[in-house]
């Protein structure tokens, strides 16, 4: 209003100056009117439209874990490190033609104690639609190392907002968690199975470790894993070009028959070349005294050359046997359905 008064009530103004004054008054009036309309519209003030992520055919970063949100959309996590600006959680929408499209989610980290560092796996929480667990790989500078409960919700514009609900601290000796499975154990309890990636495979050694524990959703705290609730993870030993670069667990997937699948990957560096093997690693019975029974001599079911699989989950309805996503480092990421391989 100060600028308007200077023009409107100053003396001896030229015709050009009066024209400019009128234009400025009109612009100010339009701005005030627009602001008034936006303020009156319910919910607009709560939606930072300028920050809405765009949907893209390119996946922004390597995928470390995924789980279905609905029939066509997958929630995915990324291994973005602390201090980096990349996305940590996003959504893959699979079109009717099978084309994946990616959009970063907007995440509120406040209930978890701050934004994530190196998310490596994701699992749906049974009987809690829209809720998931995401897990960090472990501790960094004596921080992080969390199992984080998430709640995802879509807005009318298609953006996914994710709220953190609570968090549990992993055991202090956690070592490179890459896989996560969550199963109902009854009476309000959940069974959590963690897969640690390991490394270096030979005829005489194994790679990776499975660890499991019971969890109460209403009692966040520190996870405790006993000596009898963990086992080394045997993996297929044949067919690796560089055994010393093999990681035994890139992700875990539990099918409807209680079979626990793991993805082992040959990872010699960010330039590859990569090779992945998906194999039946164990059987899970959440209500048994010994909930996880590992396969002694697992065999490869799927072998994928050129790809580093770090996410496995249920198949898209009517398409294939399961679906995978990768973190191919220098080469980006991809999502694919997999058919049952030939025997």
Any overview of this molecule?
It is a single chain. The chain is mostly beta strands and 343 residues long. Helices cover 10% and strands 40% of the residues. It contains two helices and 24 strands. The strands form six sheets. Strands 16, 17, 18, 19, 20 and 21 form a six-stranded antiparallel beta sheet that branches. Strand 18 and strand 19 form a beta hairpin.
Number of helices: 2
Largest sheet: 6 strands, antiparallel
Total DSSP E strands: 24
The run of helices and strands is HHEEEEEEEEEEEEEEEEEEEEEEEE
Give a short synopsis of this structure.
This protein has 343 residues and is mainly beta. It contains 2 helices and 24 strands. The protein has helices spanning 2-9, 15-40, and strands at residues 63-68, 73-78, 89-94, 100-104, 106-108, 119-124, 131-136, 139-140, 143-144, 146-154, 160-169, 177-186, 189-196, 209-216, 230-232, 246-247, 252-254, 259-266, 275-284, 292-294, 300-305, 309-313, 322-326, 335-338.
């Amino acid at each position: 209003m100060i600028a308007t008064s200077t023009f409107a009530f100053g003396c001896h103004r030229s015709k050009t100056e009066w024209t400019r004054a009128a234009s400025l008054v009109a612009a100010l009036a339009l701005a005030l009117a627009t602001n008034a309309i936006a303020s009156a519209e319910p919910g607009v003030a709560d939606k930072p439209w300028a920050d809405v992520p765009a949907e893209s055919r390119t996946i922004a970063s390597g995928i470390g874990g995924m789980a279905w949100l609905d029939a066509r959309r997958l929630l995915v996590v990324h291994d973005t490190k602390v201090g980096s600006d990349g996305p940590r959680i996003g959504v893959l929408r699979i079109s009717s033609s099978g084309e994946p499209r990616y959009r970063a989610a907007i995440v509120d980290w406040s209930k978890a104690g701050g934004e994530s560092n190196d998310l490596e796996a994701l699992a749906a929480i049974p009987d809690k639609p829209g809720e998931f667990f995401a897990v960090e790989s472990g501790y960094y500078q004596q921080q992080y190392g969390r199992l984080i409960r998430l709640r995802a919700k879509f807005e009318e514009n298609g953006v996914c907002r994710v709220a953190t609900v609570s968090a549990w601290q992993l055991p202090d000796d956690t070592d490179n968690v890459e896989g996560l499975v969550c199963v109902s154990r009854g009476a309000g309890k959940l069974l959590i199975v963690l897969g640690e990636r390991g490394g270096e495979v030979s005829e005489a050694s194994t790679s990776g470790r499975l660890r499991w524990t019971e969890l109460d959703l209403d009692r966040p705290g520190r996870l405790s894993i006993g000596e009898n609730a963990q086992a080394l993870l045997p993996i297929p030993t044949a067919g690796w070009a560089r055994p010393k670069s093999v990681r035994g667990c890139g992700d875990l997937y539990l099918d409807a028959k209680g079979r626990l699948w793991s993805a082992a990957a040959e990872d010699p560096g960010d330039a590859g070349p990569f090779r992945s093997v998906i194999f039946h690693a164990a059987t899970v019975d959440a209500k048994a005294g010994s909930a996880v029974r590992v396969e002694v001599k697992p065999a490869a079911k799927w072998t994928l050359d050129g790809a580093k699989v770090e996410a496995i989950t249920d198949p898209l309805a009517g398409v294939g046997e399961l679906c995978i996503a990768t973190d191919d480092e220098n080469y980006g990421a991809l999502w694919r359905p997999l058919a049952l391989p030939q025997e």
